């Protein structure tokens, strides 16, 4: 059988200590048994051969369930039939489980524990059940475990350690298959040790207990590639993921593909001591899904996250209490949030946007329960040549200082700039909104929406602004939004959307934009600003919403209203059943009870019903609505020339007399009502 194990060149030396045991004869059955009288250490004495060939073992006895099987002579063992051993020790040599076979190991499982030697273990489409301590590379030796398919079940007492102790090197390569690890899992443990876990292909693994990469002075590296999925599950209370733990430790995750999932527990990048930890995420198919990512948790531990590609999805990204540095570098890829958080990124010593830029996506995860996400952060964004793209529904609020020089793009949702972008041009796509009360040092080009303020406020742009989408302005009784442009402002083809306050009409001009120069034409349309005009050169270099004096406002200003709200069109301060709108329309006095002069009246003339009222001259711009029907539901609206209805008007000294003539229905009963809408 060909040995497919990767090789690590080392100096090779070994010793062999044979162990001989005597078989006993059971007289009652006359069968020769290979069962030892007591547990023993049995060494491999062959070269490359079959585990089940007794000639390959010292004393001619196969190791059993209570024995320790030892391969220390540089030989190669192939397990071609399922076996149970007490412990397995491969200081120097190779042990392989062939396809379809299983090994049950109830005691210690140690590969590569001879100083200067190399021990190997190969599991190819088989099964390993190990319930004791499991170590690959210890005591100054080198160990290599390769796993091609099948299942590994780690449980019981003792940790799972890849690379333990000074001068030791351990490597675990998983090309495929599934691992269930119920014990503490450590990649590199102890001063001077090196551990590597290479997780690739279609692999899968679940870590239920501690998962530590680079602990207690060791160097640990977790390499993730391919399309597999590694998950830390919350099975064991108080456990988490630690990358870099203890003085002198270095921990690294190098992820170029696949999934790293730790949704329920925090991930500590640089947990304690003087540890140095790095996580490099790259490759378009790489996804890291985390709860809180804590960078620099305690002591003087340092952490660096380099985001070159793929997707980092986290509930929060924060620095812990460490006096070391916590740095994040964006150079491609997407950052997504898993929940609403106004402090999504906080406390980091530096965040840099390199040439590849960063996409921040506020689209919720499937089945997350969120329809949109609203997040924010205030850390400064340092310049490395790249820019920032806001994508997805929901909002991102930025309150720091962005020194980056690449373009800021709003593809979807809302980007609030409540801090400052010192030198970034901003592009707003058709589905995006730029808002906020901060300062933009570059230019703004918007096919989407610009909505100054976070609430009501001023958005300042120090260079040119061109809006072909929408300029959304909110006005209150006391204040209003303002787009303050130092450079040139062009609103030609844009829509001005005005949100007016509740209550009486505005009476003073509101400045909605200021500019250094203005090019192009006027707004293409205005929404929500009926009764108001736009002054494009108010005070010379401002755009103002100027309230026209509405007929109703002119009428209402002539009265001395006693209570707040009495002046509203729907109010009836004299309680005579005629609201102010009707009093205005019919030339009444809203403070004196009684019907107004133009009150409607009805009469029958032959086969017609005549409904007559007089419109006040000051209300000539208001079109009345006459509802009618044979019941008080009044389901119909009168229109001249329809259904036998005629409407005539006649000028009068006080305004205009309206006569609405209806044909009398069978039964001779008809109801009509005047309705005034301002």
UniProtKB/TrEMBL annotation:
Origin: domain of life: Bacteria
For this protein, the record's InterPro entries field holds:
Pectin_lyase_fold/virulence (IPR011050)
In the record, which residues are listed under signal peptide? 1-39
Alphabetized UniProt keyword annotations: Signal
Q: What name has this protein been given in UniProt?
A: Autotransporter-associated beta strand repeat protein
Q: Native species of this protein? A: Luteolibacter arcticus
């Amino acid at each position: 059988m060909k040995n497919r194990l990767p090789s690590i060149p080392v100096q090779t030396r070994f010793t062999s200590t044979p162990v001989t045991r005597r078989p006993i004869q059971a007289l009652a059955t006359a069968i020769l048994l290979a069962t030892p009288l007591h547990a023993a250490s049995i060494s491999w004495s062959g070269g490359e051969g079959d585990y089940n060939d007794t000639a390959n073992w010292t004393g001619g006895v196969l190791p059993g369930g209570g024995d320790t099987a030892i391969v220390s002579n540089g030989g190669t063992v192939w397990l071609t039939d399922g076996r149970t051993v007490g412990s397995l020790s491969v200081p120097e040599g190779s042990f392989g489980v062939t396809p379809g076979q299983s090994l049950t190991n109830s005691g210690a499982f140690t590969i590569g524990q001879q100083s200067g030697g190399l021990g190997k273990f190969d599991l190819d489409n088989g099964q390993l059940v190990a319930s004791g301590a499991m170590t690959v590379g210890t005591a100054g030796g080198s160990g290599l475990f390769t796993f091609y398919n099948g299942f590994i079940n780690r449980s019981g007492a003792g940790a799972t350690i890849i690379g333990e102790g000074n001068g030791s090197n351990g490597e675990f390569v998983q090309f495929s298959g599934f691992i269930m690890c119920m014990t503490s899992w450590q990649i590199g443990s102890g001063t001077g040790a090196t551990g590597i876990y290479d997780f690739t292909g279609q692999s899968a693994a679940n870590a239920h207990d501690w998962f530590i990469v680079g602990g207690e002075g060791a160097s640990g590296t977790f390499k993730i590639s391919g399309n597999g999925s590694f998950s830390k599950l919350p099975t064991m209370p108080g456990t988490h993921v630690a990358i870099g733990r203890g003085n002198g430790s270095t921990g690294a995750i190098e992820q170029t593909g696949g999934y790293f999932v730790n949704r329920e527990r925090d991930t500590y990048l640089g947990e304690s001591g003087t540890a140095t930890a790095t996580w490099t995420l790259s490759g378009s198919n790489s996804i890291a899904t985390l709860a809180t990512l804590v960078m620099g948790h305690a002591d003087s531990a340092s952490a660096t996250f380099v985001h070159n590609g793929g997707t980092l999805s986290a509930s929060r990204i924060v620095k812990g209490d460490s006096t070391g540095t916590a740095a994040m570098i964006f150079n491609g890829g997407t950052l997504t949030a898993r929940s609403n958080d106004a402090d999504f990124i906080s406390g980091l010593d530096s965040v840099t946007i390199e040439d590849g830029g960063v996409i921040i996506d506020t689209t919720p995860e499937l089945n997350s329960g969120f329809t949109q996400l609203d997040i924010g952060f205030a850390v400064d964004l340092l310049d490395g040549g790249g820019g920032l793209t806001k994508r997805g529904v929901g909002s991102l609020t930025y309150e720091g200082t962005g020194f980056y020089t690449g373009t800021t793009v709003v593809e979807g949702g809302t980007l609030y700039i409540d801090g400052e972008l010192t030198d970034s041009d901003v592009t707003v796509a058709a589905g995006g909104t730029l808002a906020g009360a901060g300062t933009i040092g570059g230019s703004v080009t918007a096919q989407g929406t610009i909505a100054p303020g976070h609430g009501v406020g001023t958005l300042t742009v120090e260079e040119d602004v061109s809006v072909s989408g929408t300029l959304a302005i909110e006005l209150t009784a006391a204040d209003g939004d303002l787009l303050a442009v130092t450079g040139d402002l062009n609103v030609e083809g844009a829509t001005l959307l005005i949100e007016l306050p509740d209550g009486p009409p505005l009476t003073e001009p509101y400045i909605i934009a200021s500019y250094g120069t203005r090019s192009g034409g006027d707004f293409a349309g205005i929404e929500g600003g009926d009764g108001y005009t736009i002054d494009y050169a108010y005070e010379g270099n401002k755009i103002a919403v100027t309230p026209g004096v509405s007929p109703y406002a002119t009428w209402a200003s002539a009265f001395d209203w006693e209570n707040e709200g009495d002046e509203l069109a729907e109010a009836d301060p004299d309680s005579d059943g005629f609201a102010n709108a009707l009093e205005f329309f019919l030339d009444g006095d809203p403070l004196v009870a009684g019907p107004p002069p133009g009150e409607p009246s009805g009469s029958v003339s032959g086969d017609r019903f005549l409904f007559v009222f007089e419109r006040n001259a000051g209300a000539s711009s208001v079109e009345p609505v006459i509802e009618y029907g044979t019941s008080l539901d009044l389901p119909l609206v009168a229109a001249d020339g329809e259904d036998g209805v005629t409407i005539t008007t006649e000028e009068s000294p006080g305004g205009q007399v309206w006569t609405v003539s209806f044909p009398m229905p069978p039964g001779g009963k008809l109801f009509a009502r005047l309705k005034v809408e301002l």
